[in-house]
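Sample 3 of the quickstart, ligand adenosine-5'-triphosphate:
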Amino acid sequence: MLKDALIIMGKELKNIFRDKRTIFSTIILPVVLFPVMFGIIGLITKANEEAKAKAEYTVYIESTLSQPDELTKVIDEIHKVGNFGIVNDGINEKAIESNSTAVGLKIGKNGDIFVATVIYNSVKEKSTYAAQKIREALMNLNSELVSAELLSRGINPEELNFVQVNDMVVGVSAENGNVEEAKAKGQFTQILAVLVPYFLLIYIFAGSMGLGIDTTAGEKERGSLSILLVNQVSRTSIALGKMLYLMLMSVLTSVLNLVGLVIGLYLEMSFLGEANMPFSIEIGAAGYVLLFITVILLALLSSGIITLIGSLARSVKEATGYITPIYMIVLLFGISTMQSEGSKAFYYYAAPFINIIFGMKDIFMGTFSVANFLTMFIVNSALVVLFVYLTAKIFNSEKVLEVTTE
Amino acid sequence: MQVNNISKSFVNRKKKKIEAVKNVSFECRSGEIYGLLGPNGAGKTTTLRIIATLLKPDSGAVIVNGLDNQKEPDKVRAMIGFLTSDMKVSGNLTGREFLRFFGQLNHLSEEKIEERTRMLVEMLDMADFIDRSPNKLSSGMKQKLSIAISLIHDPDVIIFDEPTNGLDIFASKVVTDFLKEMKRQQKTIIISTHIMSVAEKLCDQLGLIFNGQLVENDTIENILKKHEAAEIENVFFAYANSMGVIQNA
Ligand SMILES: Nc1ncnc2c1ncn2[C@@H]1O[C@H](COP(=O)(O)OP(=O)(O)OP(=O)(O)O)[C@@H](O)[C@H]1O
Ligand SMILES: [Mg+2]
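Result:
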C-alpha cells in the first residue's frame, strides 16, 4: 500500500517539477523575492535616512531673548545637531509650509525658563525631521544648564544615581553566559516565536491549497482521476500518495519561504545598522527535531483536509468555494494567537491548527511540556488518519465520478 | 464474463429517478468481441462502468473469470482494461512515462513494462509521439495513448467505451485492427458504440440497448435473420421508432 502511495507521490512530484512556472513560484520566487524585497526596503530606508541627515535646513528664528549670548547658545546647540542655516528675522510661515527643509523656532524666556515653540509642516518628512533635531538641540541645552546649575551648587551630576540595575538572563537563550548576547538572542527568539508559527501556518496551508485542488478536483475535471481509479491500486494508496505529495510540496515551499523571509529580515536589519543581532535561534537539537515533527504534522493536516475536500467537490470552483472559508478560519487562528504566549490550558492542545501554533511557540519559548506535545501529536495524527480514510471512501464511492463543468 | 440482470438508477437534479440500466444480462467469452449498440443516453457507459466496478448496480451481479466484481473489486480491476471517452490523460509526463507509471502501479517489473510499452507503441503506431506529453498531442494521439495505458498490464478483459470516438478513419482503423489482434490473442472484449459500421465489422455478438433495456442480444446474423433486415441500421431504427427515442438525446 505504501509502495503504491510512494509511486503516486513520485509521479505527482515529477509532473509538477516539469512545469517551469512551478519551479519559479515555489523555489526561485521565495528565495529571491523576500531577500530582494526586504533588501530594497532596507536600502530605501537607509538612503532616506541619509538624505535627511545630509540635507541643508533653514531655521527661521523669532527671538525675544534679551541677552544676546543666550541666543548664541541656542544657535550653537542647533549647529551641533545638524546642517542648519539660521535666518534670524522672524517666522516665515509661508516658507515653512512650502519648503520641506524649513522650520521655525519662537524662543523667549519666562523668568529663568526658556520657552520655545517649534513650527513645522507635519506632512513633510524633512520638516518633521528638522523639528525633531531642533527639539534635540533644545534638550541638549537643557542638560547643559542642569549640569551647570548642579555644579554651581557643589553637586557632581554623575553621582546623582541612587539605584543601579543589572540584568541576569535565564532560559534557553542564556546557556553560554554572556548577558548582552543572551538578551539579543532572546529578542530574536521572541520575534521568531511570533513570526514563524504564523508564517508556517499560512504558507503550508496556502501552499497545499492550489496544488491540492488541482490534483483532486482538477483531475476530476480533466478526466484523469478515473484512469487512476480503474487500476487495481487501492484507494487508500491514492489518497495517501496525493497527501504525501502535497505534504512534501507545502513543507518545501514553506521552508523556502521562511528561509527567504529570515534572510530578508536579516538583510534589512543589517542595512539599517542592526546587524549585531545574532543570526541564530537557540532551541537546541531536540527543539529542532520537535519543530520538524510539528511542521510535518501541520503539513499532513493541511494536505489531508484539502485532499478530502478536493475529492468531495465536483469541480475546481466548488472545491475552492469550500476550502477558502477554512483557509480564512486558519488565518484567523494564526492572527489571533500571534501575540499570545505559549503554555496555555490543556484544551488548546486538543484543537487542531491552534495546538500546532502553541506547540511551536512552546518550542521557541522553552515552555515545552511532554503531555501537551503528545496531546497535539495524537490529536493531529488521528485527524490525518481520518482524512485518509474518508478520502479513500470517497474514491471508492460513485460520487467521485460526478463532475460538473460549467 | 457474465453480466447477470443488472439494474441501475440515478436520481437527477430535479429529484427525478432515471432508470439508466434495466435488467441487462449478457455474456462474453474469451476470443469474442461483444458490442453494445445504442443511441445517446441509452445506458452504454453506465453498463460498462458497472462491469469495471466504478459503479455498484442496484441489483444483479457481474462475474469476471469466476469472480464477483462487487465482492472482489481489486482483483477484478486487475483483470480489466477499461477506457471511457471521459477519461483523459493530462499532465507534463511523456507518454512513455505515463505507461511506466501505470505499469508500476500494476506491479509489473521494469523489463515487463518496457516489453509491453514496445509492443503497444508498435501495435498502436505511437512511435512518433510516445515521448511527448499529452498536452502536445492531438485528440486521436491521446486516445491511442489512453488505450495503451489501459492495457499496460495485459488484462484478459478489455472494456472500451466508444473507442473510435473522435478518431479519423486512419486512427479508427488502427484501433479496430488492434482490437481484432486482441481477439486473436483470446481476450474477452466488450465495446460500446453508436457507429453501425464499427459494430457490424468488428463484433461477434451484439446487444442493442434502448432506454436502459437490452432489446436484442445475439449474433449479428441472427438479429438480421429475426427481423428479416439487410442491415443493422434498419433494425436499429425500427426499435428507435417503436420505443420513441429518436429525439431523446
Ligand atoms: N451520475 C449520473 N447521475 C445521474 N444520471 C446519470 C449519471 N450517469 C448517467 N446518468 C443518466 O443515465 C442515462 C444513461 O447514461 P449513459 O451515460 O450510460 O448513456 P450512454 O449510452 O453512454 O450515452 P452516450 O452515447 O451519450 O455516451 C442517461 O439518461 C444519463 O443522463
Ligand atoms: Mg457513453
